[in-house]
Amino acid sequence: MIDFIQYTLNGTLIGLLYSLIALAFIVIYRSSRILNLAQGEVVVLGGFVVYTFMVQLSLSLWIALPLSLLTVLILGFLMEKGIFRHLIGEPLFTNVMVTIGLMILLRGLMLVAWGPAPLLFPEVISSDPVTIGPFLFSRPILFGGVFALVLFFCFHWLLEKTRWGLTMTAVAEDPVCAQSLGVSVKRSVAMAWALGFFLSAVAAVIFLSGQSIGFLASDIGLVALPVALLAGMESIWGAPVAGIIIGVGQALSQAYLDDYTAGTMSKAFPFIVMIIILLIRPQGLFGWKIIERV
Amino acid sequence: MAVLPCGVHFSSYKQAKAFIHTPAQWASLILFLVFLLILPHIFPARLVSAASIMAIVLVVVLGLQITTGLSGQINLGQSAFMGMGAFATGALAINFHLPFWLSIPGGGVAAALLGIVFGMPALRVKGFYLALTTIAAQVLFPLLIIRLPSSWFGGATGLGLEPAKIFDISIETRTGLYYFVLVGAVIMTFFAFNLTRSRTGRALVALRDNDIVAEILGVNLFLYKCLAFAIGAMFAGVAGGMWAYHLRFVMVDQFTLWNSIWYVGMVIIGGTGSILGAILGTVAIQGLEELLVALGPWLSATFPTVGGTAWFTGLNIVLGGLIILFLIFEPKGLAHRWNVLKHSFRIWPYPYV
Amino acid sequence: MNRLIKSFLFLFAAGAFLVGIFNNPVSAEIKTYVIPTSADFSGPYSYLSKTTLPGEQAMTMWWNENVGKDLGVELKIKPYDMRYNPAVVSSLWPGILATDKPVLYHGLGGPDAAALMKRLPEDKVPMLQSTACYGYQWEPNLWVFTPRPTYVHEYAGFLAWVKTWWKEDRPIRVSAVSTQGIPAYEDAVKGYESMCKETDYLEYVGTAYVEMVPVSVVNEISRLAKKEKPDFILMLGSTSQVVTVVKAEKELGLYIPIVLSTHNDISTVNKVLPIKDLEGRVYDVSAFCPSLDQDIAAYKIFQEYKTRISPPAPDTDWDLSTLQGAAQAILGVRAIERVVKKFGPDKVTGEEVYKAMYDGPFTSEELLGLMPALEFDKTAPFPEQSMKVKASTVKNGKRVISTPDWVMVPRIKKW
Asked: Which of B85, B127, C239, C291 has a beta carbon 3.0–4.6 Å from B111's, enabling a disulfide?
C-alpha cells in the first residue's frame, strides 16, 4: 500500500514537470495560435543557456539564473521578430511546418554550439532526497512540482485576469478582429514566445538539475504534446490536471504492467491516452470547443 | 495562371486532362527517361547508388505529398508506414517465399492497412491533432515491432532478406538494384500523377480546401480521409519494400521520427500540393545531403578552424533554415519557381502576357 | 527576361558543380592501400568519432613507419561521415568500392553492419568492427570481424570472475536496466535471460525499463531493489541513464554494483559524475584493455603519434573510444602484415586479408597489449575460443583494475 502511494506521489511530481513543459506549449498556443512542435528543443536550449552561464562563464547561481532567464526571454522575442511575424495569419499547416523546421534548426545550432557529447548540468537544486514520513522524494522534482503549481497560479491570473492577458487571448481567438480593435498582434505574439521560452528554461533547470544534458534530451518534448492535448490547448489549469493524470498513469503502469509487457506499456501510455482522448473529446478536458461555420 | 504552349487548345475533356500537350513535351519526357536508363553507364558508381536511394525516398515523399499536400492531412508518421512496408515485405519473402513482385505490393497493402488505422481519427480531429496522432503512430511503431513474436517481423534482431530474383537471376549489383528501384519509382510516379487528375484526386483536393463544404457537396468524408492515408501509406509501404530488397536488412531503428520530419521537409521545400514538387524537393534535399557528405572531408580539412564536425552538423542547420526561409518567402516551394521559369520562357521576350 | 537568364545560369552552374563533385577521380599509387573507415560526425555518436579516429590514425601511422616501410606498403585511413545511418552507408559503399578499392573496412557499429553484412561476401572486403558484436551478427561465415564478443559475453566473463570470490551459497542475482524500443538493448536482455537460465550460479531476477534520457529513476530502482534484491545491475545504456541510476542509488542509499559496458566506461561516466558517487557502485568490463592501464605499448605509441597525425589531435585523451579505434586499427594492420609477408606488397586483396584473419592466433604483443591473444574461427564474428575480459572499479576514490590478468569468458549458447 505504501508502495502504491509512493508510486502515485512520484508520478504526480513527474507529471507536474511534464505539465510545466506543456504549459509553455499552451501559453504559446493560447497567445498566438502557433503549435510549437519544437518544444523539446526549446527546453534543451534553455538548459544549455543556463549551462553556459553557470559553467562556462562560472557565474554564481544567483547571477546566472536571472541572466539566463533574461537571455531566454530575448531569444523568444527574436524568434518572433525573425520568423513568426511573417507568418501571422497564415494557415495552420504553415505554422506547424515552421515549427518543424525550427526543430531541425535548433538541433543543428545546439550541436554546433555545444557539441554532441553529454555535459554535466550543475546542481541547481541539491540532490539529497527528501523524506516525508515513509515516503522518499527526489528533491529537484519535489521543488519543481511545488514551483510548477506556483507558476500555474501566476499564469492563470496573468492570462485570465489582467488586461494584457486578455489581449493575448483575443489575438489567439481572431488576430484580424483583434487588430482591428487596436490590439498589437506583433507584440502579443512576441510576448507569447518570450513567456514560452521562459517556462521552458525553468522546466529545463528542474528536469536537468544534476544530470547530464545533451541534444537527445529533447525527447521530453514528445511527452508534453499528449499532456497539452489532454488538457485542452487553451486551458492553463488543464495542464497540471492532465500532467498528473499522465504522470501517475505512467508511474503505475511502469510499476505493475511493465513486467508483463517488457516496458512497452509505460512508454506507450501517454500516447494511448492521447489517442483515446482525441477520439472521444477532441478539444481535450478543458479546451475551447471550436465550432466551424461555413 | 499557367500559360499553355503556343498553339495548344482543347476540344475534348481528354485533351484538357492531359499532362503532355505537344510533341516537344513528349520528346523531353522520353529523353529524360532514356537519360535515367543510361545513367549507370555515364555516371560514377557513387552517383548511381545515391540515385537509387533518392528513388526510394521519392516514392515515400510522393505518398506523403498525397496525404499531406493533396488532401491536407498532416502526416508525421510516414517513416513508420515505410517501416511497416519493409517489415511486411521481409516477412512475406522469408516466411512465405513470395517473389518480390508479390511481396512488395504485399508490403504496400500492409502499410495501407496501418495507414487506415492511424488515419481513422482523422474523422474526428483535424490539423494539429491529426499530426499528433501520426506522431503517436511513429513512436508506437518500433515498440510494436519489437514486442511481436520474432518469427513475424524479426523482433529486436531485424530481418535479413535474400536478394530479389527474376527467373533465378539475383538482383544484387548496384546497377541491377538501380534499375529495380527505378522501375518501381517510375510506376509509382505514374500512379501519383494520374491520381491528381482522377475523380478521387479531385475529391482529396476538395477535402484539403474545405472539408465541411466538401461534405455538403457530397464527398464522403470518412471514405476519402481514410483513402488519403491509405494511398499515402501504400506508397510508403512500396518504398519500404524496395528498401528492404536494396539494403537486405531491415531493422526498426531505420525508421525514426526524424526520418518522418525530413520527408515533411522535402514536401515543403518542393512545394506542397504538387507531385512535381515532391520530385523536386526530394532531389534537392537528398542532393544537398550527398553534396555535403562528399564535400565534408575536403571542407573540414581546408577550414580546420571552424571545427571538423561543424560542417556535418551544419546540414541540420541548413535544412531547418531552408524550411523556414521557404515557408516565409517561397511558401509554394520549388515547384512554383519552376512554373514561373516555364512561364517566363513561354512568354519571352515579353515580361507579361 | 533577366530573371529567366539568371535562373538558367544558376541551374546550369549547379548541375555542372554536382557532376564535378561526384566525378572526382582518385589516382591509386602502387603499394598504398586505402582503409576506409566509418565515422559519425553529425549523428548521435559524433562525439565518439572525434577520439576514435585519432586512435586509428596513430596506430596506422606507427605501423607504416616501423613495419610497413620495410615491407614496401603504406596504409591510409580515409574517414567517411556515415552519420550512423545505414542508408548513408549503403549509398556511399559502391563509391568507396570503386574509388578506394579497399582491402579492409573499419565499421563503427550497427548501421555499417546492417547495410553491409550481406554484401561483403560478394564485394570481398572484410570488415572490422570496433564495438561489441550484436546479437543479430552472431552468424557463421560472415565477413565481419568483431574482436569483442557480444555485451552478454562480456558480462558473462565478469560474472564468472565474480564467482571466483563469491562467498554466499545461493546463485548470484542479476538484473538489468534497459530501454524499450531499442532493438540492441532488447536483444541484450534476451541474452541475459538465456545466459542466466543456462548457468547454475546465475539467476535473472528482472529488468527495469527507463527512457533514454530519464527524468528520474528513483521509482524504478527502488522497486527493483525492494522486490528482487539483485546483487548486480547490468547496464548497457547511455551516459544519461547511468548518471540517473547512480544518482537514484545515492538517493536511496543503495550500493548495488552497476556493471557498465564499455561504451560508457568509468572514465566516461566520471566526466559527468564525481568519483565519490561512484565508489562501491560501479564496475566496468571489456574485452579490450581498460583505458586506465597505461602500461601497454599502444598507450605510449598513441602519445607519441597523436601530434603527428593529420589533423593533429594533441588534446585527445587516451580514453575508451580512442582505445577502440586503436584496437580496430592494429588488428587490421597486423592482418594486412601477414598477407604482405606471405605474398608480397603488390598482392594484398580483401580476400587475402580475410583469409589471413583465420591464419592462426594474434598474440597480445602483436596487438600492443590492447587485447588478449585472439583466435578467430568461422563459427562467429568474434573469437569464440579465446574470449577474455578485464574489469575495473572504483576503490578509495580512484579507478583501479580489478582483474590484473585476463579472465576467460565461458561459452554461451546462442539465444
From this structure: B85
d(CA C409, CA C157): 4
Pairing of strands C388-395, C407-408: antiparallel
CA terminus-to-terminus distance, chain A: 55
By Cβ distance, the residue of A11, A115, A136 closest to C47 is A115
Structural domains of chain C ordered from first start: 32-149+293-382 (3.40.50.2300), 151-286+390-408 (3.40.50.2300)
Long-range CB contacts for residues C352-356, cutoff 8 Å, separation at least 24: C352/C103, C353/C103, C353/C104, C353/C126, C354/C124, C354/C126, C354/C143
Find the range with the poorest average confidence among A38-52, A277-291, C182-196, C314-328: A277-291
Cβ-based neighbours of A1, under 8 Å, separated by 6 or more: none
Query: Of A112, A261, A278, which has the smallest distance from its Cβ to B314's Cβ?
Result: A112
Using a CB–CB cutoff of 8 Å, tell me whether C189 touches chain A.
Answer: yes
CB within 8 Å of chain A, chain B residues 322-341: 322-324, 327-328, 331
> Which of B257, B260, B265 is CA-nearest to residue B281?
B265
Question: Residue A256 has which C-alpha cell?
Answer: 505493475
Using a CB-CB cut-off of 8 Å, the residues of chain C touching B157 are: 135-136, 183, 187
Cβ distance C216 to A217 less than 8 Å, yes or no, reads no
Q: Distance (Å, rounded) from C-alpha A265 to C-alpha B289?
A: 37
Q: Do A266 and C209 touch (CB under 8 A)?
A: yes
The pLDDT tens digits of the residues spanning C100-143 come to 788 889 888 878 887 788 788 888 888 888 888 887 778 888 88
Q: C209-236: per-residue pLDDT in tens?
A: 887 777 777 777 887 888 878 888 888 8
Any idea where the domains of chain B sit in the sequence? 36-347
Interface pTM, i.e. ipTM: 0.80
A2-124+134-280 belongs to CATH 1.10.3470: yes
The continuous run of DSSP H or E covering B326 comes out as helix B310-329
CB contact (8 A) between residue C240 and residue A118: yes
CA distance B308 to chain C (A): 8
- Per-domain boundaries in chain A: 2-124+134-280
- Min distance A54 CA to chain B CA atoms (Å): 24
Architecture of domain B36-347: Orthogonal Bundle (1.10)
Read off φ and ψ for residue C283, nearest 5 degrees.
Answer: -130, 155
pLDDT tens for C347-377 read 888 888 888 888 878 888 888 878 888 888 8
End-to-end CA distance of chain C: 69
What's the rounded mean pLDDT across residues B309-313?
Answer: 62
Using CA atoms in the order B28, B31, B33, B39, what is the torsion angle rounded to 10 degrees? Answer: -130
Calculate how close chain B gets to C184, using CA atoms only, in Å. Answer: 7
